[in-house]
Design goal:
3 copies of one chain form a homotrimer. Chain A is an alpha+beta fold. Chain A is built from 7 helices and 15 strands. In chain A, the strands form 2 sheets. Chain A has a 7-stranded mixed beta sheet, sandwiched between helices. In chain A, strands 9-10-14-13-12-11-15 form a 7-stranded mixed beta barrel. In chain A, β8 and β9 form a beta hairpin. Chain A starts with a strand and ends in a 5-residue tail after the last strand. Chains in contact: A-B, A-C, B-C. At the A-B interface, β1, β2 and α2 of A face α1 of B.
């Protein structure tokens, strides 16, 4: 399968040595691994955003081992398990805490076929600290898997159907409108909704160019278009984003700021002139 | 030519998965490539600063493929072309949008010898999104070139003399003064001017230690020196920077803040005691 | 010894091309090197924090060459030396300015066995700039060492016992209390003290759960526990951190903010109910 690949996502940030230390632990156990950092700027403890970003990134990464650590419950006596799982598609292996972080990605990859609990993995660094399982458990196990170890060699089998998942809001189509929620905002303030581009087209057709975005009792004029730069600077645009999801942006501006919305905010998108 | 090299500069930032996804796309197409990130913190859409940073960095990088994406016009119907070009020196290949981003670097490398338009490259990821050409066009084309593909294999030939360039301000020397402009400020608030160290010496000689920096009607005392730490803490220093350009700094402080200047601000540097 | 390893720590940040340029210089001289970035977000010129972070990270990195640049005195006429040193343990080689940055790590590795001054190294990039020794001296020398050069080949021998060190504050145990100082705060606001977990246990025993943290005349209730999540959200916790040091955190919050402390701040930890 060629060169070993470990991808890595976390909320560790870059100010401290945490990311570098995990790279070091991986390189010691699997010197040939290529390590790809997906991002380490997930807001502290934001499991759901980490799960969404991981799921959006994986289809574009080489197959391999995908390490993810957003773990506000690290080290708790009655805390979450630490797990490694194999997804149905492409032999991808995911490693991280059993708090939902891995499961949106795993579900998009056909679900988890098998899983092991790795808190007492023979690959862990001892003594295991109470606060830095990324270094002491997750990174060394990911590296061992990248080096060719089997799931059975790094942990104890558990029921893959019992892994914790995250409930996402659900968009709906009806009455000529798309009712959806904000899943995430990116660095540019572009908003990804919990609706596919296909749902958007189903709600509004594909010819309607002048739209209204309703949010928290306010209405904003918007344009349906293919991308930001199809509209004027400062104008609101509703489009299908790079992951084929319905999205809202402001050309050369921030939709998150303009609409004043946060994650999970519900909004409606409808044709201008339609009854509001 | 040894191991394949892809360098990468963008305005994607590190909060999202954009950089990691492009690394993944490159690693899938060219598993042996070493990827060097120049920076991904170019301010959003600042093509000129991206072009200057790219040009300053390339001489220190191994020869290879140099990917750069600062692309406020991504996806526009009548937008810029996407291009790959070969520079005259060292067989370096540059890949990015045809909006000037590549051209300061290309000119310093003897100019673009040949170029291809890559929007419909056979190497692109389909369907190409309207908003993430870094992932769908630029990264896979850069990886294909790093893996040994020729320009002709990744795009359609275009006239290299028609590529868009960026007009920079021009410093001038006369009346015992250097009249120059701020090209960029770095993280430390050090200001690079659009004048070489040689122009600085030509304007003021090399013996004159006490200077005046005039900007926006105000005059600041400064010292001519070799580096920051040749002057007192908080003192303004005029020096030749690491790229042999005239520069202004404050020892253990920020010249950008002290002078209150922004990009393209004009200023004059002259001997203290000279008629102002 | 397998694949060459260069680790890299600095205060260069990611906004500019400085880190990428140093990667480029290393890759040109030692194309096989794996480069691991420890962090580049050390606050500008904070030599001591850089030294502490380096020392905490190295035990988890593969053996190799460890490059570190936090260098407020760069280029000064009567400035610090530039050095490479070999530590007693594991053949690790450290490269950086002789301003104390390397020495906490070197001491934890059994001390510096030998050292060379590298300002005029045959490996340096000429002309050496006055402001960017990371690029012109430190990176190329580190790469040469990673490629197999000996210390003698890259510099002139100096007395390793004369290298500059950093004086750290010292914790003390007595009267049922631990008197300690803040060494560093991480991105999460967790505070590492200058006391080991063993000193903490010696001062307070291991059964005492209810503590007081005294700082600047104020007293804060705290819990002794194994990790953040053993206490309620917002509660102060005293624990042994991932590097086996005494530490103070707030579960799902910032101890640095709650206590209002900065580096070197002295504080006392004692049992609740003890005479204050």
């Amino acid at each position: 399968m060629g060169r070993a690949l470990v991808s890595f996502l976390s909320d560790y940030g870059h100010e401290d040595e945490f990311v570098g230390v995990c790279h070091g632990v991986i390189a010691r156990r699997c010197p040939d691994a290529r390590i790809i950092d997906i991002t380490h700027e997930i807001p502290r403890g934001d499991i759901r955003l980490g799960a969404l970003v991981l799921a959006d990134a994986l289809p574009y990464l080489p197959c391999g081992v995908h390490l993810a650590v957003v773990d506000p419950g690290v080290g708790a006596v009655a805390g979450r398990d630490a797990v490694a799982l194999r997804a149905a598609e492409h032999d991808r292996v995911l490693v991280g805490p059993d708090n939902g972080l891995l499961m949106i990605a795993a579900e998009r990859l056909g679900g988890a076929l098998e899983a092991v609990e790795i808190s007492d993995s023979p690959e862990r660094l001892q003594p295991v600290s109470r606060t830095f399982h990324g270094r002491d458990i997750f990174a060394p196990v990911a590296a061992a898997l990248a080096a060719g170890a089997s799931l059975a060699e790094v942990g104890a089998p558990i029921d893959a159907t019992e892994l914790r998942t995250i409930q996402l809001p659900a968009a709906s189509v009806g009455d000529g409108a798309l009712t959806a929620h904000v899943l995430r905002a990116d660095r540019f303030g572009n908003l990804t909704l919990d609706a596919s581009g296909a749902q958007l087209a189903s709600a509004l057709g594909t010819d309607q160019r002048d739209l209204i975005v309703e949010v928290a009792g306010k209405a904003f004029a918007a344009r349906r278009a293919g991308t930001f730069s199809d509209v004027q600077a400062g104008e609101l645009v509703v489009y299908e984003d790079g992951n084929r999801m319905a999205a809202i942006a402001v050309n050369l501006g921030s939709a998150a700021e303009l609409l004043g919305v946060a994650t999970d905010q519900q909004l409606r998108v409808l044709a201008a002139g339609a009854a509001v």
